[in-house]
What does this fold into?
Amino acid sequence: MNSKITGLNLISLKDRVVKVFSESNWLDLGAITNTLEEVENHPRLLRSLRFGDPDYDGLVLTFLRKMIGSNDENLEIVMEYINQKCSDSGINISSERNDKRKIIFSPNIFEVPDAPVDNDLISVMMPFQLDLLPVYETIECAAKLAKFDCKRANDIWENSTVIQDIFSLIFKSYIVVCDFTGKNPNVFYEAGIAHTLGKHVVPITQSDQDIPFDLKHHRFAKYLNNNEGNIFN
It folds into this structure.
């Protein structure tokens, strides 16, 4: 058995195949892995599929194991084909539309909002400090000039927990501005959520030293919290 695939991964592949594979899928997969003859001549595999026999799960597991064997190339072919044919349903909420590999996940900490992404929405993640209010007002003015809506978490109250409101706001946003001034851990956490959801993240700060090591490779905007920096005040 190929060392690159674990038993749990093989079971996961089996479950996805059992869920959606048709006879033609098996024939396709057999053709591209040079195991078509084995698929067609297997005494039980396709028959069990046609009649919904209870042994089909076990047959799929055994045959996938044999099909992959110790062949690295077959492993890649099988996984790519199954990923194409058995992709789970989901929505793309990333700000970037591209053909790169995608993942589908279901968070167990947050509720996924029943709302689409608002391409005109900018959310701002920053500490709730009085001295940073002019900064937010400046961002808000700039957003309006560019015909964007701009919100912070304290602009909404839709859920019983603040962090759920924050997640929902990031989820629905097209752009997420993160102010790292003061090394606020909440903002770091929120930036991580935004990056994971594939949002356009715009880091800003009053000091280079407030950018954490893991984010220093990203470009950021440094500003002055005064009349020079807050140009709309």
Summary: The radius of gyration is 25 Å. The chain has nine helices and five strands. Residues 208 and 216 are 9 Å apart (CA to CA). The domain at 121-222 is CATH 3.40.50.450 (Rossmann fold).
